[in-house]
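Page 47, continued from p. 46.
Same chain as before, 160 aa.
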Amino acid sequence: MKVIKVGMADLNVIKAPGILTTLGLGSCVGIALYDKHNKVAGLAHIMLPSSKEIQNNENKAKFADTGIDLLIEKMIIEGAKKDFLIAKIAGGAQMFSFNKDNSILKIGERNVQATKRKLSELNIKIISEDTGGNYGRTIELNAEDGSLLVKTIGHGVKII
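Result:
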């Protein structure tokens, strides 16, 4: 089976059979989109909530707002239909402890909120998530059935 690695601030798409995987999701969010009718899977590893807050924003895959749009475009090219897409998200951890009042440092939480907001605007339903906490995750999205394997250190392995 073909396995494609998705790096940080990167995204990719695969048709079944195959797996998309991304390592080391800390405060970053892994956004897994899936069209079960056409068996097209897409995975984005976003680092920041919004491209509008950053000057240097050519890399669309780095941000929740532009990364999700780009991922959908690439999935449609592979044969997915936007109306069939469902989402699963993982990551968004608070990897370091900061003063609780400083929301600018709560990047994981902000990434999750921005991801949910964008998917909601696009009418893409999040059917499961594994977000928050203070630990990293590695995820694998299977294009055959849309299952998302979440591996953590100290928190086991689960399929969402």
